Amino acid sequence: RLVIASRSQMAQPGLRVAAMPAHPLQAGPAQLLAIAPARLLSDIAPLLQARQAEGLSARAVDVADIYAHYSDGVTDPLAIRAFLRDAVAQLGTEYLLLVGGDSYDYFDRLGLGSISDVPTTYGRTHAVVNHAPLDHAYADLDDDGQLDLAVGRLPVRTSSELRMLVDKILTPNTSTEHTAVFAAERANAAEGSDYAAEVEALIAALDPAWQAGAQRIYLDDYPTGAAGVAAARNDLRAAINAGRRVVGYYGHGAPTLWSREQLLQAAQLNSLLGNPAGAAPVVTEFGCWGGYFVAPEFNTMSHAWMNAGQRGAVAMFAASGLTEHASDRVMAATLLPALTQPGIRLGDALRQSKQQLQDQAPEFADVIDGLTLFGDPSMTVQ
């Protein structure tokens, strides 16, 4: 049937097509690419401007724009991976900075104010860990074992945290060069472990200047019991607060503590740390769970170290799951020499170390996939 009517008599649709945001690939090259929620884009700008001044092309992308073009607006880490494959090919991207925290409680079902700004991926890293948070999947974009990007995350939840962290990253480090302090778990004969001896071997493999500047805080050198642990903690605090370029821990760990004897707890860090502006170290933790950044109930060691204002760490390497002692040993022996090379960027040190282990010993997935960089991957130690 044919109906003839004037325009004014025609029914008008109640919906209209939403405007599509510009494609995130359109704004030009980005050797350093930051992915952030809209509310944090302005706060990350000073860091990107500083890297541009150093000669890197750098820009930020709203994570919602990625979803709009790669997953029809649905929040999906696979959309981020698809975008990154295009960014590597078309924008020359080498460094990826994920800006914002994450939580496995995406929809705040627990009512704790859970925030998932830039979602991670999850995967198996150990016989008993099937669901570890893995930013590593954004480094190996086609699962061929060849790392395409150097990846880091800033585990912030608020604009204030991000502004303070960016300011800390951009503040020149005035600590004495080639200085480090290494803490180690107490030896355990039943396990056949001698952590202090292994740290000594790690130090001996470093450049002589770093060997000379290395301080030791070994629990073996302190009495067992609360008083001995407190003395070790005070010595570690004094070393950190005096200014060190690198702070390392080697031994047992949990999401919120270092060592079975609780040498250091996440809840203690805010009151313990007093390192001045310009003396924020890079922290390396070779132990379990310190980088489990998706827990909605508590702050992990990585949150506590990174989000302490000008105090605490400027960057941190920590595992997002359970790790084996042998895995920590080989990763530490690979990463520490790389990390202390003059002028190397943090992300490149981790990328090189992971690639070396992937090529030579791919069975160490607990550290190859699970070791996470919290910080700017384009930053240098020295």
Describe the structure.
The chain has 382 residues and is of the alpha/beta class. It has two domains: 32-168, Gingipain r, domain 1 (Rossmann fold, 3-Layer(aba) Sandwich), CATH 3.40.50.10390; 173-374, Rossmann fold (3-Layer(aba) Sandwich). Helix content is 33%, strand content 16%. It is built from twelve helices and 15 strands. It has helices spanning 41-53, 63-70, 77-91, 159-170, 195-204, 208-212, 226-242, 266-272, 301-306, 325-339, 346-360, 365-368; strands spanning 32-36, 58-62, 95-99, 121-123, 132-134, 150-154, 180-184, 214-218, 246-250, 253-254, 257-258, 264-265, 282-286, 315-319, 371-374. A six-stranded mixed sheet has the order 8-7-9-13-14-15, sandwiched between helices. A four-stranded parallel sheet has the order 2-1-3-6. Strands 10-11-12 form a three-stranded antiparallel sheet. A hairpin with an 8-residue loop joins strand 4 and strand 5 (132-134). Helix 1 runs parallel beside helix 4 (159-170), helix 2 crosses helix 3 and helix 10 (325-339) crosses helix 11 (346-360). It starts with 31 loop residues before the first strand and ends in an 8-residue tail after the last strand.
